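Input for the complex:
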Amino acid sequence: MPSASTDAWHDVVLATLKNNDVRLTTYVPDKVLIPLIDGVHADPFFTAFTATREEEAIGICAGAWMGGMRGVVMMQTSGFGNVPNALASLAVAYQIPVILLVSERGAFGEFNIGQVWSSRVVAPVCDALGIVHHTLERLDTLEFVLDRSIKQAVATQAPVAFVLSPLLTGGKVFGA
Amino acid sequence: MSELHRIDLMRRLVARLSDEAVVAGIGNTNFDLFAAGHRPQNFYMLGSMGLAFPIALGVALAQPKRRVIGIEGDGSLLMNLGCLATIGMIAPANLTLLVMDNASYQITGVQPTATARSSDLVEIARGAGIRRSDWARDEDGFERLLAAALAETGPALIAARIDRSAAVAEPERDPPQIRDRFMRAIGSK
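Predicted:
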């Protein structure tokens, strides 16, 4: 149920990943993701490292899942544009619950025109592939949506995507 | 450096295996692994070109006590060279990489890859941080490198120039079955 959490959004995300035994975090960096990236590197519970491309990170997490370790891939919306084939022919086809955390650029004051259209591919691609996706906008429902959706992904052997909205994270603003 | 027979090399690999997990890339790479002798610890890819080594890295991280072998073709590896940098950076002790280089996209009509003219995947792997990267120049060299790679702390990459003989068998294209069988065989389900 929604709760009046006083934790920051990234503390809720990290705690929910830990509570669901999601240990492997591999990512292509993004500025909004900094507190998550710093958090997984600071906590020995997590195995954390960069990948060179987002689809590579999906391959790593898919392999880890098959080996018995849960993983999350973190990226920016522009990076999501790299992943449809890895999702379609690996995660979806083989029924592997890769968890995606996607930092949303391209909305709410985006200053870089190069980010705008790439950010719009996330929902249509997920819909086309039948991948459950949620846009995370509210701190009070964050833990509920993440926790239940990760559990559903594992139980149903299906990938899941979470879009971290600037409404939750503050986003990245010009000059920041 | 002579061209080695693709299925002969794969048979030499399989003959050395016991409980290792093997992840084989799309097309002829996994066809040959299957033809050399199916084992439930084999993961056969059906798409996601270029992700055999990343998938193998993931398995290796999840199961540090199990030896994991990734097998990839030259075309697939060229698509995703960055994974060599990631593997060099992580340096998993239990990961062995095998590159089957026929200098072509054989399955789509034998169009030449960059390795036909200019690229050297062993040099690229070394530069990416996988110091123990070597060409198997003949069958004896392949056997020697493979024995060392499987016995020692990794990572190690072995590449071989192979011929373009035709595939002789293909695994059943049933991804959930492949994945489920693989997971049960390596004890994660």
